[in-house]
Amino acid sequence: LTQCIAGPYCTKLFADHGAEVIKIERPGTGDVSRSMPPFWHDEPHLEGSGLFLHLNTNKKSVTLDISTDAGRKVLLDLVRDADILVENFPPGAMASWGLDYATLSQFNPRLVMTSISNFGQTGPYRDYKMTEITLYALGSTMQVTGMPDRPPLKLGLTVENVYAGMVSATATMGAFMGADLSGEGQYVDLALMEIQAANQDRAVQGHMIYQYVGGPTGGWTRSGGGSQGRNILPVGVYPCADGYVQFFTLQPLWDRVCRMIDREDLIDDAHFRAPENFTNNAEVKAEFDAILLEWLLQHTKREVMEKSQSCGYMCGAINTMEDVFEDPHLAARGFLAEIDHPHTGPLKYPGAQFKMSETPWRAGRAPLLGEHTREVLSGVLSYSDSEIDALRQQGVV
Amino acid sequence: MSKLPLEGIRVIDMTVVWAGPFGGALLGDLGAEVIKIDSTHRLDPNSRGQNFTIEQLRENGHDDVSPDARPYNLSANFNSVGRNKKSVTMDLLRPEGREVFYRLAANSDVFIENNAPDVVHRLGIDYETLKQHNPKLIMASLPAFGTVGPYSHFRAYGANMEAVVGHTLLRLYPDTDATNATGVFLADAAGGATGAFAVMAALYHRRKTGRGQFIDLSQAENVMHTLSQAVMDYSMNGRVQTSYGNRNPNRAPQGVYRCAGDDAWLALSVGTNGEFRSLCDVLGQPSLADDPRFTNLAARQKHHDEIDAIIEAWTVDKDHYEVFHTLQASGVPASPVLNTAEVFADPHLRARDDWQQVTHPEAGTYWHLRSPIHHMSKTPLYIRKHAALLGEDNEYVYKQVCGYTDEEYQRFVDNGHAVTEVVNSRT
Fold first, then answer.
1. Model pTM score
2. Closest to A131 (Cβ–Cβ): which among B152, B269, B373?
3. In chain A, which stretches have pLDDT less than 50?
């Protein structure tokens, strides 16, 4: 019972790795992400949203109006034999349809029910609205992303919503593992704000640094721009012949940088090695940056990355999506999976989130709206054709 | 209270930096016994890093810091993400240290690690070797680019990985180039979360079949799923998306607006004409909603700069929390851009009982955010124990888990395997 991004990504992880995921969609329009871009050939179509197609691979679609009595009854029949129910309606919606956990658990005490919402089912902000940018703003890391003299900057697209889906899948799987052993389900209340506040990307360490030594930003700063290292080693984004590369290190790996740029002669260079020059010296840093830049500008981003990595220095090419689709590593691993679909034909999708030696990932497509309604109602619930037709006439399915 | 979901599962956690330790933490939150392997001679720069000194903590009023505190027990990172974990040391470069590890593996359910890909092979603790000691073992490796493929030997932090899969170019101010990108590490958080999911999926499979397995998780590939729209737009339409900065082609206005105070901001995002009308009402300029420059999304995109100026003229002398509540009360999606101190004090997180005070024997008493998944109705997740001191659980692990005798354990102590001090630290 999820829609949009975080909920569908949560259940996608289950579906991609073998669970039977039955997606309940509103009759007529379905999941709102079916109406969100990008669209195949830029033509808005309920079966053509790239976002929807990616987030709903391997699922079945049943259209059902759960706000009606007849629809509620169908859902309760499904719940009786389900292991997990995930929903991300606004808090209170499920209860208003008589589908709260207290009710559902009477029909199936083993059921794990996960609710994913903006701020959780309780608390003063419970009914507040949220979008990707306001979600990122609430977690403390947006404040330290961007340039010092400009406003804080969000990350790309809806990455934090997808991340919330990953955490939600972990929570749901955890609760399921317990229920599977004990025979006793439970209710999991997930809040996007909490997932963001506890984000391992800088936030968690920030809470501790803040308490250790003070400072309102937990030891991080909006430091975008130029090298972010305090010593002369490259950290951050640098230009090269055909774009940019991202360097990183936390260790004093001077010899590796010298080898990368074919300047072994600098490894023992007294000038650069002198402690007062090596660390916290902008002038000497600029001096070395000039040498580095000269080398960088003679090499492509992929060459820089490969040379840097072969010397043991952390580096990533800053790729466009075109570069990503042509990347030899992803190709060798077969990460981009070709998945066929009746509306779009075969397309490349991001593939296995992880590869298991015994239980392979499935490369199935997203369902058409209501594609499995009859199959699930007759196959799983053993409804007769006339019952299904009656529901259809009422607009319930 | 019911049993925690993963009670009885033992996890060996030889993780470093952020991604692996977060994965281990989630499994520990859910009740698994997570045993962190600490090295006797090497501290990776970040899992027990981000260290502070006794003096720094004292200067900031922490009188309860132990005078004998060791730097690797004052790590900002490990003391957070090491919650609920135990710690054992052994020197894996020596054969008898390896034997300890093999015995531990034989008595564990899961081994999770995210070291540079050659490390487990060099130390003789790769999956092929370990499964001879425990065929039911589940091993999860979470390196930057996976365990196979041309980049499998690459070392990378989150900022490098997301560059390679295309995120960096999607999160720039629209008028600046990539050299202005802040290093961000979502790949670590994502890798840890999905890693914990993968481990549980394998545990479930083992419960059904009795078989262990190996999990290869490329953090770079995993985080590429967060770029859904850009990946699919290229796949479907051949379009290479670029950054929208703080804006959004499908919503307007959207942005970050200066508020009263030092570096205080409001984030706001309007999706519908109705929300825009509510915004105009809050601004005290209801007629703007009918102004032809702003009546629909396309018009608002065209005149975005003008709307931004109007909004910021209103926010600039107001408190960011105050405008947040005012706008939300009228149904306009908005939030303050919180800094760490504000998240720490935020009334919503406090009302939801998200913080827990934990006393650490060397660092003192601090508030920790409970697990992001702690709101479970039958098994609420708490921090059951402070992050382990280095080697704190040596005796338990050597004797109870691995079955060594008192004499044997003493030899491991004498020979520098079971230690609580890092000797000869090299990086």
1. 0.97
2. B269
3. none
